[in-house]
Amino acid sequence: MVESGNVYYLLGAGSAVGVTLYLARNHIKSVLLNNNKTKSEQSSTEKVPKKGKYHSDANAPPPEPTPLYITPEQAKTRDDRPWRPFRFPYHQTMSIFKLDVNHWLDMDKYYYQYIKEKERVYHSYGSDNIGSLPGSEEACLELMEMVKHQMITRYPLLFTSEDDYIHVKNELTGEILDFSLPLKEDPLVYVSKMAKEDFYVVLKGDDGIHRLMAAAVPFPGGSFGIKYKLGKTLDVIHTEVPYYETKLKPSMEKWFAKMSPADLVERASWYISWDHRLLLNNVYALAEGDKVQSDVQPTEFNVRVERQTLRRLPKSNAIIFTNHPVFYSIEEMKDEPLVPSLIRKIIYEAPEGIIKYKHFDSFRDHILPYLDSLVERQIEKGLITAETPVKTLPTYPFAHFMKDGDAETGWSNPLYPNNYSEQLKKEIIEGQKMEVEVYKRQEMV
Question: What is the total count of domains within the chain?
């Protein structure tokens, strides 16, 4: 199972309709106001997040997203916040930061490919990746309304309507979503047609125990089968996660007990593979003890960042975890001070449980000469010295160029801009046989 976790939150249906009507009537005025914003206002979300003790009053209202008037054409070339969640010493902790509601459901140039891959996964595997249990109905409907509200409020030019948002057109996919009652599809299907993220719905039972009651998870990266996890406690779901009992569980339970609908947090996990697939990565398709193929070029290796959020729904009181994978090639990060050094150190010196869980030993010797060369390159270029301590980046969990972008323009890598859309499509087609073989193997275990 690939490490996962974090939460979302919902706003009521009435609130969603009211806000969207307001936007429709005042669109031109809002655009003009947005264009006149100062640079400091537009850049409010680009600061490095700060950790700390923060809990809102239980009755505090959830925050409202701010409209971002990017067009479909702008969205197709837009990079979102550049994650670099590398830290050393490596400790298994929640490592959470306050989440700006504007970044709850992010938008980038891979949006179309992600939505289309969701459709393929659900068509091919169904209950393996989407499902719900009795008792989760209210939470799933509330989640659907919250996602709808977030997308039409945050991205008013990407999600449009001519009938007060009973029907919503996704301008990026061309699909018109029918929200008239009774709903034509499961609420989780609507959620998956609007947002790139995976969603986990957790509810606390009468016995005081949290259980996974519904989920839409097309992009687990490894072997997370929803149909085997629904109804299970968090302890069971996290059985394979290293140090869960001693490190993560106490922090999670403590946070759940205090979090209110106004508390939004995010974190990021990561692992390495040599592809961009969303359902099943090469590294998790390996049989136990197998190594990366010898002909795979070191420059093909990518860091898959699992950007995760956590929030509580105000009506159903459900806790919503989301996960959004995004890939960064090691090659595109080669001139970012200390990044190659950190990756090299972590894959060899992280706790043994982490090394095994993330399969670092299946490829680390293969890419070691490449990483050595990148470290030497940084020393030669004066980016670091041989004595520079290898430790968590000062801009953690983001890249150093985070400060140079904003929500409107995005955060493209200034040295090595990248777009793996075409490669992703090719890898998805090539990987379908592998998916079938791996899932057959897992069924036999």
Answer: 1
Q: Are 245 and 167 in contact (CB under 8 A)?
A: no
Least Cα distance to 305 among 325, 323, 322 occurs for: 325
Geometric angle at alpha carbon 137, from 136 and 142, rounded to 5°: 100
Tokens at residue 108, please? 């980038």
pLDDT, tens digit, 9 for 90 and up, residues 149-178: 999 999 999 999 999 999 999 999 999 999
Residue range(s) defining the domain that contains residue 405? 13-444
Six-digit token pair at 88?
A: 């050393």
The answer to whether residue 5 sits within a structural domain is: no
pLDDT-above-90 percentage for the chain? 73
Residue 271 lies in a domain: yes
In a domain, 2, yes or no: no
User: What does the pLDDT look like over 242-286, one tens digit per residue?
Assistant: 666 666 677 777 777 788 999 999 999 999 999 999 999 999 999
| Helix (H), strand (E), coil (C) string for the chain | CCCCCCCECCCCHHHHHHHHHHHHHCHHHHHHHHHCCCHHHHCCCCCCCCCCCCCCCCCCCCCCCCCCCCCHHHHCCCCCCCECCCCCCCCCCCCCEECCHHHCCCCCCCHHHHHHHHHHHHHHHHHHCEEECCCCHHHHHHHHHHHHHHHHHHCCCCEECCCCCCEEEECCCCCEEECCCCCCCCHHHHHHHHCCCEEEEEEECCCCCEEEEEEECCCCECCCCHHHHCCCEHHHHCCCCCCHHHHHHHHHHHHHHHCCCCCCEEEEEEEEECCCCCCECHHHHCCCCCCCCCCCCHHHCEEEEEEEEEEECCCCCCEEEEEEEEEEECHHHCCCCCHHHHHHHHHHHCCHHHHHHCCHHHCHHHHHHHHHHHHHHHHHCCCCCCCCCCCCCCCCCECHHHHHCECCCECCCCCCCCCCHHHHHHHHHHHHHHHHHHHHHHHHC
Tokens 């659907």: give the residue.
144
* Phi and psi, residue 372, nearest 5°: -55, -45
Domain assignment present for residue 1? The answer is no
pTM: 0.86
Give the residue among 102, 194, 159 at the shortest CA–CA distance from 407. Answer: 102
What is the number of other CB atoms lying within 10 angstroms of the CB of residue 52? 7
